[in-house]
Amino acid sequence: MKIAIGCDHGGIVLKPAVKNVLEANKIEIIDMGCFDSQSVDYPDLALKVAEAVSRGEADKGIILCGTGIGISIAANKVKGIRAAVCHDLFTAQMCAQHNDANVLSMGGRVIDEDLAAKMVQIWLDTPFEGGRHVGRVAKISQIENKYFK
Fold it and tell me: Please, are residues 60 and 1 in contact by the beta-carbon 8 Å criterion?
């Protein structure tokens, strides 16, 4: 499995913890930046990760900014991306189980490294439940197909 990761200056504090979890799970990491605490624009990093997932260069993505909100909004503008902002273990589990989220978004100013690591592990370990959720995820794709020509 390959996972693309990207962050801005507000999310970089979580990046080492995220990478440690991925490495422990023997997952190939495609690091799209940023690489230091210099201010950068989160839409640029969101786009890199989202495009890598959309094109199939990465199986999933993890994006990090100050809150996880802005970077997820930007990522969700790419067709095929289901980026979920998560802030606790339950949301990390549910976005995988019910929404088949292919991008996990977290905020370095709202959660700590330990929680981020646990959330990544839960997201990785939780399979998409399918069943009644298949139709709902398909409806998301139908909305994309209507507006993303």
Answer: yes
